[in-house]
Design goal:
The chain has 144 residues and is mainly alpha-helical. The protein has helices spanning 2-15, 74-81, 87-105, 113-128, and strands at 20-22, 43-49, 110-112. The model has no long low-confidence stretch (mean pLDDT 84). It comes from Mycobacterium xenopi 4042.
């Protein structure tokens, strides 16, 4: 369904206020097939402050990038790992370091990557609901 409704889904998310950015360099799995795109279509949520979720902030799992100790986006991770190999990589790593330092100084939990996307969608749901969103009453152990 995503392949036939991807455009509509993205427009829906953007209309609801979800903020995304393109992950350049992540091509489609099969860019040579009909409709494939070498430039790729990958997107991720912009860095999102978990405090905007209020009491729901602890219900969002942290981004995988947190294991590195930085507030880092998909395309920045490579540069952070190889910061000492090129001036451009050093500049990106410095930007990540400053973003991380600012978040820690302000005691903010900044979500990136998929965690940002999930948190933004949850924020839209919270804003649209009359009180607690329906998903909050679903037992965590219940599988579908």
């Amino acid at each position: 369904m995503f392949l036939t409704a991807g455009y509509e889904m993205m427009n829906f998310l953007l209309r609801k206020g979800i903020r995304l950015e393109r992950c350049a360099g992540w091509s489609d799995y099969y860019p040579n097939h009909k409709g494939g795109n070498e430039a790729g279509r990958a997107v991720e949520g912009i860095p999102f402050d978990a405090a905007r979720l209020g009491e729901w902030s602890d219900k969002v799992q942290p981004p995988l990038a947190r294991n590195y100790g930085f507030v880092v986006k998909t395309n920045e991770l490579r540069s952070v790992q190889y910061f000492n190999r090129a001036p451009g990589a050093f500049a990106v790593a410095l930007r990540v370091f400053l973003r991380t330092l600012a978040a820690r100084t302000r005691r903010r939990d900044i979500l990136t990557n998929g965690a940002s996307l999930i948190a933004q969608m949850l924020k839209v749901l919270i804003d649209l609901s009359d009180g607690e969103p329906r998903c909050g009453r679903t037992p965590r152990w219940k599988t579908w």
